[in-house]
Structure formats: structure tokens, C-alpha cells
Write a sequence for this structure.
């Protein structure tokens, strides 16, 4: 039964045209982005797409995720039912009735149950948005009760209701077998004598209601945020294969522009990301800046990118200057829609929590770093306190501007040896904090003591060691980082360094990952990994179990964990050293909450909202630990400062090496 195929064909052509034109207008804007290769390792990409897009792995990580999972798969399955509806609307003789009876009945049974599941889940989604919306469903542009969100849910509900009305009426007429469609058969029974309904009229009205809802959805889809239905799956395929532990290099030459100050200076994948955002708010929930009242909301950054692209697309295609700025100075009312404020760009700790939470693998953090590069290198616009930091690193190769000759004073009472090519196995890369920060020097001494006790062959570069440049790169000062990296790579190559052990995750990730872009392939291990290996092999033998630190609560460093997947090593070390697994934060491992110092935030003040380290320390104190154990100099500083501010009493903060060294005492 397909009333007036000619009229339906006309409406179908109009709807399909609107769909194609809408898709073309948006996808053609993606081509404005810079080229980027995202087709390597297709097998790996396809497998990940199946797991994350079709398997909805990250979506299912939250309670409401099951509801979305059902809607997603209902959409996939009912695409076949809707395709049959469209075909039979134009060619009535080409419907399911043309199939063998067993196959036809199986499909009708499946479509019937899936339609019911979809309707139930849509009603749950309605209730959630109207009565139980989470904070992440509310922002400047996302509202739980937004007309667009409710319209999409309404269209889906209408599709399901029209489906049941149509098939119930056909069952009443005798056109379909009720045994193949139990839900529709039940509705048909309700529509019988007591309601005195005309099944032919119901079938006709239901058919047209279904047709109009389907065609309206098709025409509206490319214009709405639900375009992610088309882009989310390929976005999972094209997403970066590696963890976000480095940034692309820049070439420096006269006349070149650096970073991204307008949308066409991003890559095509960056722009494709903006159309893939589902606005679910998971990145916002995970972001330490957003959680503590800062201007930054990762979802807002992606939304601004999309809005800016749509606003400036025509001008950019014509080779004209964009009319809407991407980067705008924050005002009392904040930047307008389609622009990102400076305060938001500088609030990022580059912890990677947003990317780890995103169900469609949007890459928020690299975009922020690209905008920082533009602000630093093209506009010389950055927070005032960074001026001294940049000058100190550039002039004296450390954040404090201390004379390089002071680098060796941490080992005044230790027989530290210089690294000798061919004789020394490990270079102990002390790092700026390990050499200059009074508190972190204690960690360096502890680590050196452990290495000697284990008989490890190690040495240092002494006064020749330079800052690795981690904060420079994450803050967007790529020019100075590039020079720093080149000098360090040259020095390490000249000294014949093959293996490096670090106590700082920021040095660790920079030497291990960033320096590969400069042709330096090193075996870099964090001290937690080395200690775990030494204890497991018996090369490091403890004289006693360490019990004086009481209940030990372990904090994951973002740059060790999320950026480099090192989670088990520090826990193994603590379990071996203390005889018990460490206590855990509520937010731990991949969900760990940042200390607030990454991404160059160590060198800036927090002017907005709650201090990030206070948020983390409050969470720690709820666990009532005796000791908070860390594996990062930045985390050590932030935890100790937080305990002082919150009057944390007798709670201590210890680095992993400081816990282990206690086990060497007789």
C-alpha cells in the first residue's frame, strides 16, 4: 500500500536534493583544510572503527550509553526497513512481499521488535532531557531542552509510531501475517472494535506520516548537529592511531604563517572533527579546566570551529579575509559564538582527558596547541607570566633562569659519574626540576641511590644537560622548542646515548616521542618502569618492607598514563615495596584527574574558578590517606601546595623513588 507514488517520488526528489546539497555545502568546507595523511594502516583503522563506532565501546562506558547503543543499532537495522519503505513507495511491487515468505517474516519480526526498542529508548531520552539532564547537557549553545534536540527525538518517535500504525492497520486489513509482527499485532488488537477505527484510513494516514517524518529527517539532517550520524563512523576511521603525546613539527621560513589563527589553517581532519561532534559533553565532564570553572570547555572549542567554518566558508572559498575571527580577546561577556577566547586557549593543561573520553575520537588538544602556536609566534600574545618563562628557557635553558653551572649541585654529597660513551649504559636525564627545584632534588638523590644499590651503570650530562623543551612545545613556542630539540639531539648523538632514564614524565614523553621527529631513536624509560623491572628481576633487593608511609594513595600523572600508557609499573613498585596494592582515587588510571600543571600551566597562575590541584587534593583527602604517592615533579609540587592550602594535616606527598629508597635502609 503506497498512496500516490508520483507525489511521493516528487517529495523524495526534493528531500534527497536538500540532503545532497546540504552535505555538499558542509563537506566541501572540509576541503579548505590543509592536507594530512590519514589513510595509513587501513586494517588497524578499520578494526578500531568496528570496536569504537559500531561496538560503541566508549559510549557504553557510561550508564546512559546503553540507551544510545540501542538507538544507534536500531538506526542501523531500520535503515533497511526505511530503504524498503522508500523503494516500495515509488515501486509498490518491489516491497518485502517479493521476498520468500520465511525471509520476509524474519525481517518483519526483527523490524517490529527493533522499532519497539527504539521507541522505548527515545522516550527515555525525552525523559532524561526534560527531567534528569546532567550538567554537561547545558552550555551556551547546548540545552537539554533545545528545540533541535527535541525535534530530532520527536521525528524518530513519529517514525516508530507511524510504523506501528501502518503495520497494525495492514494486519487488520489482512495484508500482513500477525504472527510475524507481535508488537504490531498487539496494537492491531487495541485498534479493533472498541475504537471503531477504519484500518484503511489508518494505513493511509500512517503511511504518509511515516513518509513525511522520514523525508523531513533526511532533508534536515545535514543542517543539524545530528550530521554526526554521517561523520562519526568515518571520523573513528580517520582518527590518529597513536596517543596524543606529541605535536606535528613546523617549518620555519620567511613569509610563512605558524599555528592556526583561522579555520583554513587547520587540517581537513580538524575540520571534519567539528562536524563529527555529537555534543554529548563527555569531554567537558572529563576536562579539569571545565570542572573547576575555567573559560575552557573542549566541546565549545569544537563548536566554535564548526560555527566559524560555516560563517567564513564562502569568504575563504572566494579567497577573501574571514569576517568572523577564530581567536578573540575575552571580554566581560566572553567571545561571540564561532570564536574562542584567549582565556580558554591558555586554560588547557593538555592532559588528554577530553580525547580519552570522546566516543568519536575527536582530537581537541592538538587544535588548542595549534591556536597557541599562532598566538605565540604570530601575535606574541600570551599570559604575562610566560614572558619570563620563555626568556629563561631560551637564555639559560631552564624555567627559573638559574645559571647552568648550578645543575650539578643536587649531588653535592654523591659520587655522580659523567656519562661515558661505550661504558655507561643509562643516561640519567635529571631534568630541570630534578636539578633546580629544592623538593625534587630529594627525589633525584633517592633515584641515584637506588640505581647504585641495584648496580645499574648510569651517568649524567652534568652542566651540559639542557631543558628538554616540553612546556615550550605545549605552550605553542615551537620556534624555541625546535632549536632546543635540535641542540639536544645533536648533544645526545655526540655523546653516544642509547638509553635514558627520567624521573619526569614530561621529559620522558618529550625525549621518547617528540625527538623521534628529529631522527633520534632512544630507549627512554621512566623511573617507575625501570624500578619495576629491577624489583621483578631481583636486581634490586630491598632490606625491609616499607610500612612507615601508612595508607598510600597513588596519583596517575597524565603524561605518564594517558599519554604513554604507563599504569601498572608504578603500582607494581608500590605493591612490592609496601606489601600492599596502593589505594586508588575515584578518578584513576585513564580517568585520572590532572594535577593542573601540564601544558605549561606549571608556569602560570590560575585566575578563574577553583584551583585544579585543590580539586584533586580534596578528592585525595576523602580517601583518608597517610601518603599521596606521585611519579612526576609537577604533580609533587601541586599536591604539596594543595595540602598546604587545604591544611591537609599529616598527609605526606612522596615520589615513587622516595618510597622505594626507604626499603634499602637497614
Amino acid at each position: 500500500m503506497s498512496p500516490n507514488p508520483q507525489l511521493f517520488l516528487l517529495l523524495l526528489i526534493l528531500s534527497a536534493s536538500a540532503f545532497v546539497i546540504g552535505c555538499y555545502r558542509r563537506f566541501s568546507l572540509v576541503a579548505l583544510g590543509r592536507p594530512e595523511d590519514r589513510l595509513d594502516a587501513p586494517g588497524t583503522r578499520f578494526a578500531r572503527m568496528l570496536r569504537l563506532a559500531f561496538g560503541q565501546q566508549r559510549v557504553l562506558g557510561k550508564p546512559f550509553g546503553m540507551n544510545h547503543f540501542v538507538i544507534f543499532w536500531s538506526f542501523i537495522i531500520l535503515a533497511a526497513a526505511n530503504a524498503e519503505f522508500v523503494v516500495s513507495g515509488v515501486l509498490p511491487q518491489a516491497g518485502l512481499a517479493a521476498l520468500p515468505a520465511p525471509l520476509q517474516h524474519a525481517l518483519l519480526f526483527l523490524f517490529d521488535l527493533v522499532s519497539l526498542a527504539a521507541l522505548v529508548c527515545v522516550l527515555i531520552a525525552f525523559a532524561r532531557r526534560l527531567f534528569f539532564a546532567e550538567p554537561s547537557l547545558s552550555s551556551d549553545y547546548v540545552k537539554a531542552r533545545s528545540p533541535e534536540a527535541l525535534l530530532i527525538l520527536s521525528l524518530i518517535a513519529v517514525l516508530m509510531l507511524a510504523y506501528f500504525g501502518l503495520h497494525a492497520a495492514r494486519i487488520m486489513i489482512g495484508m500482513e501475517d500477525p504472527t510475524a509482527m507481535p508488537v504490531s499485532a498487539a496494537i492491531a488488537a487495541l485498534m479493533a472494535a472498541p475504537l471503531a477505527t477504519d484500518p484503511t484510513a489508518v494505513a493511509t494516514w500512517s503511511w504518509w506520516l511515516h513518509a513525511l517524518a522520514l523525508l523531513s529527517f533526511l532533508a534536515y539532517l545535514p543542517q543539524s548537529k545530528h550530521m554526526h550520524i554521517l561523520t562519526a563512523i568515518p571520523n573513528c576511521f580517520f582518527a590518529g592511531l597513536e596517543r596524543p603525546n606529541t605535536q606535528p613539527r613546523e617549518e620555519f621560513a620567511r613569509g610563512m604563517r605558524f599555528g592556526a589563527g583561522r579555520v583554513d589553517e587547520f587540517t581537513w581532519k580538524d575540520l571534519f572533527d567539528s562536524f563529527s561532534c555529537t555534543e554529548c559533553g563527555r569531554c567537558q565532564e572529563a576536562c579539569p579546566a571545565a570542572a573547576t570553572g575555567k573559560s575552557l570547555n573542549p566541546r565549545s572549542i569544537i563548536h566554535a570551529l564548526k560555527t566559524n567554518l560555516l560563517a567564513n566558508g564562502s569568504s575563504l572559498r572566494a579567497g577573501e579575509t574571514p569576517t568572523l575571527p577564530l581567536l578573540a580577546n575575552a571580554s566581560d561577556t566572553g567571545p561571540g559564538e564561532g570564536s574562542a577566547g584567549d582565556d580558554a586557549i591558555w586554560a588547557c593543561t593538555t592532559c588528554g582527558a577530553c580525547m580519552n573520553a570522546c566516543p568519536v575520537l575527536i582530537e581537541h588538544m592538538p587544535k588548542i596547541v595549534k591556536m597557541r602556536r599562532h598566538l605565540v609566534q604570530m601575535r606574541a600574545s600570551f599570559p604575562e607570566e610566560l614572558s619570563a618563562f620563555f626568556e629563561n628557557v631560551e637564555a639559560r635553558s631552564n624555567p627559573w633562569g638559574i645559571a647552568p653551572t648550578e645543575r650539578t649541585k643536587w649531588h653535592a654529597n654523591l659520587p655522580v659519574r659523567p656519562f661515558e660513551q661505550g661504558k655507561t649504559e643509562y643516561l640519567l636525564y635529571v631534568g630541570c626540576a630534578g636539578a633546580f627545584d629544592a623538593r625534587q632534588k630529594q627525589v633525584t638523590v633517592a633515584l641515584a641511590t637506588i640505581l647504585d644499590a641495584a648496580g645499574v651503570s648510569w651517568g649524567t650530562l652534568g652542566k651540559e644537560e639542557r631543558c628538554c623543551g616540553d612546556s615550550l612545545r605545549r605552550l605553542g613556542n615551537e620556534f624555541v622548542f625546535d632549536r632546543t630539540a635540535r641542540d639536544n639531539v645533536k648533544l645526545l648523538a655526540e655523546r653516544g646515548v642509547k638509553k635514558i632514564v627520567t624521573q619526569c614524565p614530561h621529559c620522558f614523553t618529550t625525549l621518547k616521542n617528540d625527538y623521534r621527529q628529529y631522527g633520534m631513536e632512544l630507549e627512554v624509560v621512566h623511573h617507575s618502569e625501570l624500578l619495576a623491572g629491577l624489583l621483578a628481576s631481583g636486581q634490586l633487593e630491598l632490606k625491609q618492607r616499607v610500612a612507615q608511609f601508612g595508607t598510600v594513595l597513588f596519583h596517575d600523572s597524565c603524561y605518564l598514563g594517558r599519554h604513554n600508557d604507563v599504569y601498572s609499573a608504578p603500582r607494581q613498585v608500590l605493591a612490592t615495596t609496601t606489601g600492599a596494592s596502593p589505594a586508588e582515587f575515584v578518578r584513576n588510571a585513564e580517568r585520572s584527574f590532572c594535577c593542573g600543571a601540564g601544558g605549561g600551566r606549571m608556569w602560570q597562575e590560575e585566575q578563574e574558578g577553583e584551583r585544579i590541584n585543590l580539586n584533586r587534593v580534596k578528592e585525595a583527602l576523602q580517601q583518608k590517606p597517610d601518603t599521596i604517592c606521585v611519579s612526576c615533579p609537577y604533580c609533587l609540587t601541586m599536591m604539596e601546595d594543595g595540602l598546604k592550602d587545604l591544611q591537609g594535616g599529616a598527609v605526606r606527598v612522596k615520589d615513587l623513588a622516595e618510597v622505594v629508597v626507604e626499603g634499602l635502609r637497614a
Q: What stands out?
A: The chain has a mean pLDDT of 92. The CA atoms of residues 24 and 323 lie 22 Å apart. The longest strand covers residues 426-429. The chain has 26 helices and ten strands.
